[in-house]
Write a structure and sequence with these properties.
heterodimer; A: 171 residues; mainly alpha; 8 helices; B: 292 residues; alpha+beta; 6-stranded antiparallel β-barrel
Chain lengths: 171, 292
Amino acid sequence: MVVAALAQFDRLVKRALPAALSLLVVALSVVPVPIPEYAVLAPNFALMSVFYWTVHRPDLFPAWGVFLIGLFADALSGGLVGLNAFVLLLVQATIMAQHKVFRGKAFWLVWLAFVIVAFGAQLLAAVLGFAFRGGLPGWPIWLSQFALTIALYPALAALLGRMQRLFLGGS
Amino acid sequence: MKRPGPVLKLAAPMRVLAQRTAFLGLVGLAAGLMVLGKAEAPFIERGRMLVADAVVPLLDAAARPVHTANEFADNVRGLLAVHAENVRLREQNNMLMHWQQVARNLEAENRALRDTVRASTEASFTYVTARVVADAGGAFVRSVLIAAGARDGIAKGHTALSPDGLVGRVGEVGERSARVLLLTDLNSHVPVMIEGSRDRAIVDGDNSDLPRLVFLSSGARPQIGDRIVTSGHGGVFPPGLPVGVVVQNGEQGVRVKPYVDFHRLDYLRVVDYGTGGTLPMAAPPPQSRRGR
């Protein structure tokens, strides 16, 4: 009885891990740090986390999890509610459609795919932000944010990979 | 190998269909929320602050070590530059002693004049000091989240200050968190005046670090280096709060550099000047942690 309950709890924790870790990453990414322009140029951690888990464990990362993470990021940023949720859902659908391409590939190829996906996602976010809020970010800001996002992806992927091996086992 | 039965054969496509429908439903919901957000539906704001209220304890806990590290780094920098700082402070002290004397003379003169014309004393105000726990917004919004809300006496429209000057105003209030719209935000319009000439204008945020000075009164000629303070018009901010200094005056318009360094906001003082302003005010909050 106890063993069965523990096994069920274990399954539950495993199922919730990608979404829970993504929420934590998004929450911690808004903690103020004394770096000039950081809040403006802050890399898109929500995108990195959604990309990582959709590529590596799509079975544990349902669309509603992605939707919640997007809404959470929108609520914390004070920006347009629904924007991140919309963009991240499309990102997830894109990766799922090309899932066979990613499976078992070298890290640099996955990273290259992330560069393309991040470019599209950030472009879409800028267009939607302009359509609903008005005011486009200057291209240096847009480019710096994009560059930081792709530059930091390997570090976050390594961290999430370690978590994945620790809690979920396998690669 | 056993072949799947008819039920299982049917179950797989049904599951895929259900997943696709759910996905499209969520995409539609996200798009709907964006439209409602643009229309500024009140429940969107409430939902956003409910999330902020739920996360503030975590953000507050995470922000503490960052604040401590920040203070430590400041202390180390201070120790390294202690001699130069001492010389600078001595010079500043001499200058401030002079200004203290001037201020005392003016205060006495002001009191005497007020007595003469029987002017009422200025209204007192209340304030709450709150820690900045989230600084996010990306390229589209300039706002910070503070770890104090309606239960601490904060209401929409209250003024946020740092020791350097005006930070912005409270735009959204939760129970234990509030969002402060910075004066650099696209939606920030602060009625101001040029300190020397008292020419009126508006400091208009455009999400850049240097907001624009627009709607200058006719004949006004702002010079680089002019101090900009709030004018008190419109009723949102009281008059005389330091805003910034004119740093550009050319073809691209007049630009103001705020006195506040928005990248180093640790604590904010949220002040209720009782102006009320043009923003709708929340219900009177309970008394707690208030200063006077």
